[in-house]
Amino acid sequence: MNETYYDQIDERVFEAELKNGLKLFIIPKKGFQKTFVTYTTQFGSLDNKFKPHGSDEFVTVPDGVAHFLEHKLFENDNDEEDLFTAFAEDNAQVNAFTSFDRTSYLFSATDNIERNIKRLLTMVETPYFTKETVDKEKGIIAEEIKMYQEQPAYKLMFNTLRAMYDTHPIRVDIAGSIESIYEITKDDLYLCYETFYHPSNMVLFVVGDVDVNHIYKIIEEHENQRDKEAQPQIVRDPLIEQTSVKTPNVSEAMKLQSPRLMLGFKNEPLSDEPNETFVKRDLEMTLFYEMIFGEETDFYQSLLNDELIDETFGYQFLLESTYSFSVITSATQYPDKLKALLLDEIKSNLGKLDDVEAFSLLKKQFIGEFISGLNSPEYIANQYTKLYFEGVSLFDLLDIVEGITLESVNETAQTCLNLSQVVDSRLEMK
């Protein structure tokens, strides 16, 4: 294994690519009681159009396949075995999640690490789908989708994304729609599994008080038994999207205690920039929003004192290779007034931030939270995997943050924030 030592934070990362293409990362954390393991495929809800291995033609699968697969891989052909119980009996808690760009299977454990790793690998690497089990799962996932749609924050977000985007699959619920999941067949699942669950498209991450060489050996032996060869990178749909928002205003009635407002800004994805620049711009936009909307600002306190916002107030910026957007949201009895104030505050600060002291404090706060996060194996594993797919090491973040200046924050805000492409999305009270 290749070893990289980060002297600034005293961390070692051991990395290897196995013969079948699987990327393995191990971070030893001496003295940690808990070990955290993630097994992740770069396959999310956006990946519904792609070229299968060996094919020159694009195929399209129904929305929600990635999430559907996540559910199904917790089943096998042994009706009497419950994998959740099996992990628990070996002092491990197992879980999984699907996002826009990846699906991750994970466990945390205090004991029986080797056995739990083998069980996780076997679970993910042994698909078992029949028409009967797939049809049964559709009803379960349909109920899950209905539950999501009853959550105001979730509904508001996807209403906003559907108003922002015309064709890009980010406008679709990660779990798909009730209509789309009933179109999914076992053949769709096997096709996506064989394409995206190939070791060449996956990353295994282990962090905890482990023997690096021993863990590497058991994983290598296990993977060699699969007799798979490394594959080239998967060809995915380029996901071309128009610049303008689809619908500037969208509203829906719902049973609520207070109306909700979300402003969504559709931005250019800037896909031709280096990986580190992507991450740097993401951090700079986070700092920009913190400086104008953070809880320590006079503006935030005035909104709170005037009862224009409550604890649901929040903001987010996302910059990925095929999409980019910002959202600002809160429950409010005065959505029109709040919207005007938010837009005015952004316009008056865009490219004009000059509080050096506040900026310096924010950077120090970020660095402190980052250092604190390194005490959490969950944080390390999840963030390292996420950034790996973006082409950056988690432990390079400090250097990236050090390179951020108030001037670069102003420049990035002007580059990444498109105030002419805004969506006004609301949930009204029934």
From TrEMBL:
It comes from Staphylococcus shinii. One of its GO terms (molecular function) is metal ion binding. This is Insulinase family protein. Residues 184-348 form the Peptidase M16 C-terminal domain. It comes from the Bacteria. Pfam families: Peptidase_M16, Peptidase_M16_C. Residues 63-168 form the Peptidase M16 N-terminal domain.
